[in-house]
Amino acid sequence: MEFGICFKGFVSPDRARKLVKQAEEAGFDYCWFYDSHILWRECYPAIAMCMEHTTKMRFAPCVTNPNARDWSLAASLFGSLAKQSGGRFDIGLGRGDSSVRVMGKKPAPLARVAEFTHKVKAMVRGEEVIYGECPEPVQFPWADGYELPVHIGAYGPKALKTAGEVGDGVILQIGDPYLVEWLGNQAVKAGHEAGRDMADYKVIVAAPAYFGDKASCIESTKWFPAMVGNHVADIVEKYGTDSGLVPKSLTDYIEKRKGYDYSKHGQSDNPYLDFITPEIVESFCVLGQPDDHVTKLQHLQEAGMTHFNIYLDNGDEENIIAQYGEHIIPRFRD
């Protein structure tokens, strides 16, 4: 099983360098960065910087979207980072949430997510590509055939279908084993039905991890179900709560949700946290003592998870990385 860490853009450059070096030495495989250019600093300079301080760790945005950049610019950026790092670059991809909504714009349709995946991967390989915003062919003379891994964030049935049909993996921002199995299976099934070989398909669980007593763990991570609820609210608005297309346990918890403040996206001081219960926090996150983390991760692995990506947004980052390096990651290595 793979392990990753994920930063927001408010981590200082010096601290980011130290944390990625510590994480690589601890056995982590990936470092992800939020891609939300208004709320936090642009993530790609930080990724390039951290690449220079590691040798094995892979890097990726978690997640970018089709509306943030011209597609040739995005492909050139991704291909350049892949070349600069010796092939250690992936992307996470979504419709666009905080990075576009904070500007009052709408997320991209799923058809655009799928087209972006195909066209950007082709440009990074070095193929000649025509896409909607650019009537003339685009081809990078410096491209060398790199196959860009694209992992698609999803909750709803159509997004999961898209992730299975065109992605190299699905990103599930939730740490509940039942929901991970339910959602992951939808993506994998869609890939099989599209005739794809899903043997190496990744099911990436992105969620906070925290060590300590129950009360302190819950207090430090209760922001996360609110962020998840923001996405689930979109699904409920589209499909309702009794469609059968989304697990009822995923939709029930937002019944008392009153709103969401995008300026506080993914932060503990978001004013809309009142609907979050301790039980939901425990369900969605990985909390407690080292043995509790191992047990929860084993359940998630049994549910289909192949990669656990820790949102390091709760404080105590150095300790979390150290605990995983000493007590957790060795338990999941062959």
From TrEMBL:
Q: A single Gene Ontology molecular function, please?
A: oxidoreductase activity, acting on paired donors, with incorporation or reduction of molecular oxygen
- Pfam families per record: Bac_luciferase
Report keywords, A-Z: Oxidoreductase
What residue stretches are annotated with the Luciferase-like domain? Answer: 1-307
Which InterPro entries has this protein been placed in? F420-G6PD/mer, F420_OxRdatse_CPS4043_pred, Luciferase-like_dom, Luciferase-like_sf
Identify this protein by name: TIGR03842 family LLM class F420-dependent oxidoreductase
Q: Which organism is it from?
A: Halomonas nitroreducens
Record lineage = Bacteria, Pseudomonadati, Pseudomonadota, Gammaproteobacteria, Oceanospirillales
